[in-house]
Amino acid sequence: MPALAGSNTDCVLPYLGKMRNINSIVLLTNGISFAIQAVLLLMIEAWADYGTQRPNITVVVMLNLAVAVVHIQVVNDVQTL
């Protein structure tokens, strides 16, 4: 049986189909996030190399992504209340 949070043993949670330690969850999530960001940036920057609006493409897309991340965080914070 998994250990409860606050006990003297490591805390484990279900994540990606397995019971994992919190440290493992953080490392996996950071790795997945980095991979997604790298792919998005490579795609957006390649797209922004063409046309007359190229500086605006990168700025608009990055602002939209920032707003989306903030929105997701706010929704998650509200749901935990």
TrEMBL record:
Record keywords, A-Z: Amino-acid transport, Autophagy, Membrane, Transmembrane, Transmembrane helix, Transport, Vacuole
GO BP terms in the entry: amino acid transport; autophagy
Keyword Mitochondrion: no
Topology within the bilayer: Multi-pass membrane protein
Transmembrane segments: 22-44, 56-75
A single Gene Ontology CC term: vacuolar membrane
Record localization: Vacuole membrane
Family, per entry: Belongs to the ATG22 family.
Record's function text: Vacuolar effluxer which mediate the efflux of amino acids resulting from autophagic degradation. The release of autophagic amino acids allows the maintenance of protein synthesis and viability during nitrogen starvation.
Protein's UniProt name: Autophagy-related protein
Source species: Suillus fuscotomentosus
Native organism taxonomy: Eukaryota, Fungi, Dikarya, Basidiomycota, Agaricomycotina
